[in-house]
Amino acid sequence: MLLHLFFSLFVFLTLIDNGNAGVTSSFIRSEFPAVDIPLENEVFAVPKGYNAPQQVHITQGDYEGKAVIVSWVTPDKPGSSEVRYGLSKGKYDFTAKGSFTNYTFYTYKSGYIHKCFLNGLQYDTKYYYEIGNGDSARNFWFETPPKVDPDASYTFGIIGDLGQTYNSLSTLQHYMNSGAKSVLFVGDLSYADRYKYHDVGVRWDSWGRFVEPSTAYQPWIWNTGNHEIEYMPYMGEVTMFKSYLYRYPTPYQASNSTSPLWYSIRRASAHIIVLSTYSPFVKYTPQWKWLREEFKNVDREKTPWLIVLMHVPIYNSNVAHFMEGESMRSVFEAWFIEHKVDVIFAGHVHAYERSYRISNIHFNISSGDPYPVPDETAPVYITVGDGGNKEGLAARFRDPQPDYSAFRESSYGHSTLEIKNRSHAFYHWNRNDDGKKVKIDSFVLHNLYWGQNHQQRKSNQNRLRSLILNRASTSLL
Ligand SMILES: [Fe+2]
User: Fold this and answer.
1) DSSP assignment letter at 240
2) Which of 24, 46, 251, 430 is most deeply buried (CB count within 10 A of its CB)?
3) Same-domain status, 332 and 366
4) What is the pLDDT, as a whole number, of residue 452?
5) Domain range for residue 453?
6) How far does the centroid of ligand 1 lie from the alpha carbon of residue 125, in Å?
7) pLDDT tens-digit readout, 38-72
8) pLDDT band at residue 465, thresholds of 50, 70 and 90?
9) What is the pLDDT of residue 14?
10) What distance in angstroms lies between residue 182's CA and the mean position of ligand 1's atoms?
């Protein structure tokens, strides 16, 4: 009876707080085969020239956004690990020297994987850069973010579970037309582990070429998923994340992390925390200890927006991967509330879903208080595992839709988060099938820290005003 009353109250509060019940989209996408694009397709084309650099990608190189890590592969011989760069095209006043490495995966031998660190960059500046030599040299550019500042506007894209199918290509092309400046990637990159033996490495290489039209020009902030684990004892490969760790460097040391798999950066007005679902995270593990310390470094006066990336969603009402995020929820959710995380992006489930602001931190093994409740101090949880890989869509949602689920749809797409200032950001999810940028699910995200402080300041001002008025009226008497 008590339980029934509680549940009724929860539903009532949800309706009041959110104004409407959640939506399960009735959109049915036309079938499109979830098959990988053949290797001979032009999207995987090897650049012209002997030993030309390929699979070029950049990521943020430091904590504040004044450094970039450039990485690429030369297939035939090491060649140069140097990056020449400058402020105008073809005029490279600066040179940075990098290093290279390679690895084997069963019978596959990787090319030479270069990594070069460009430091001391100016904020809000377009840099041109060149890698490779002679006829094989290649030229690209990137833009540094604005200085870390509470009102710095900036647009992030969010992509997950991308793979290398025709649907992946559609997502990538849609994203590249979005105007976003940097990708927050929520894990599962190439799906190369869906292949066997030699082809695992081959599909990492093809994926690197596939995403290069974006990754060479703007930083992708990387995170791992289960498809990066690559624990494959049948071919003697048991080192977790081997291919990923060789190929996709992250600036983890800049945030005092001891692993490239979890780290954080500050970019414009955002503090972004990357968590590794498939690394130990329970109490006293390195990741747990690091996160506890990193939350202390978050300064909402400088970076109002606190964003967390993880692979497995904590709140997911799809049949696929249901409850898989429960272990991380039980460990970290209370911290997310305490530190007023604005939004948490995840992938893994091949569909789209957005929650209302809810929390379940009162639940413990003996409290008998199991339901998530509306909580205006909690993050919004968004699942964007809909990049378009060969496993296809997670088409079945649980019925009925839970009260905490605001919108869900089983389609391919990507999201953008357009931060306007310290208090407001525009969010939207874009479905690929519409052929152009159509905002299927969008809302204004109010900053949790500044929204509340703003209200507090307003009430302080009102109190002060009434105090002055009272004194003035008393002195008149
Ligand atoms: Fe996954």
Assistant:
1) T
2) 430
3) yes
4) 64
5) 447-477
6) 35
7) 999 999 999 999 999 999 999 999 999 999 999 99
8) low
9) 38
10) 21
* Residue 131: inside a domain: no
State in Å: Cα 45 to ligand 1 middle: 27
**Number of domains, the chain:** 2
Concatenate the DSSP letters of all residues of 149-193 into one string: -TT--EEEEEE-S--SBHHHHHHHHHHHTS--SEEEE-S--S-GG
Q: Does one domain contain both 222 and 306?
A: yes
Whether 142 and 218 have beta carbons less than 8 Å apart is answered as yes
Residue 313 C-alpha to ligand 1 middle, in angstroms?
10
Looking at the fold, whether 263 and 294 belong to one and the same domain comes out as yes
Closest CA to 433 of 167, 180, 185: 167
Query: pTM for this one?
Result: 0.91
Whether residue 459 is contained in a domain is answered as yes
358-373 average pLDDT score: 88
Which residues have CB atoms below 5 A from the ion given as ligand 1? 188, 225-226, 348
Do 355 and 457 belong together in one domain?
no
Provide the mean pLDDT of the chain. Answer: 91
Structure tokens, 417 = 């988060």
Same domain, 330 and 284: yes
**Nearest Cα to 43, choosing from 205, 216, 206?**
206
Catalytic-labelled residue, pool 57, 321, 414, 428: 321
Beta-bridged to residue 308, according to DSSP, are 273, 344
Nearest to 306 by CA among 261, 262, 338, 349: 338
Q: Is 428 a catalytic residue?
A: no
List C-alpha distances in Å: 267 to 205, 257, 308: 29, 17, 13
pLDDT of the residue at 3? 41
pLDDT tens-digit series, residues 265-300? 999 999 999 999 999 999 999 999 999 999 999 999
Crossing angle of helices 326-338 and 286-297, in 10° steps, is 20
